[in-house]
Amino acid sequence: MNIAKNMEAIVIAVIAVAAAASMATAAVPKFHAAQPVAEAVTTHVVYVSAKRLSAEEKAGL
Fold it and tell me: What is the pTM of this model?
């Protein structure tokens, strides 16, 4: 049996088996739990203020 000759059929068969196994083992929930509603969203903002280093200061580091 020449595997290289039938490689396309082998790949398609492997994909078909993987898809069937994926569908067969997929968990289907019986009900959807209610999603919690966020009433107030808090966004944290950080401001950084600093002076830029000059070339001399960068070289000294």
Answer: 0.40
As a residue count, the chain comes to 61
Question: 14-61: per-residue pLDDT in tens?
Answer: 999 999 988 888 766 666 666 666 677 788 899 888 888 888 888 887
Interatomic CA distance for residues 16 and 7, integer angstroms? 14
CB 3 within 8 A of CB 10: yes
Reduced 3-state DSSP string for 1-61? CCCHHHHHHHHHHHHHHHHHHHHHHCCCCCCCCCCCCCCCCCCCCCCCCCCCCCHHHHHHC
pLDDT per residue over 1-19, tens digit each? 577 788 999 999 999 999 9
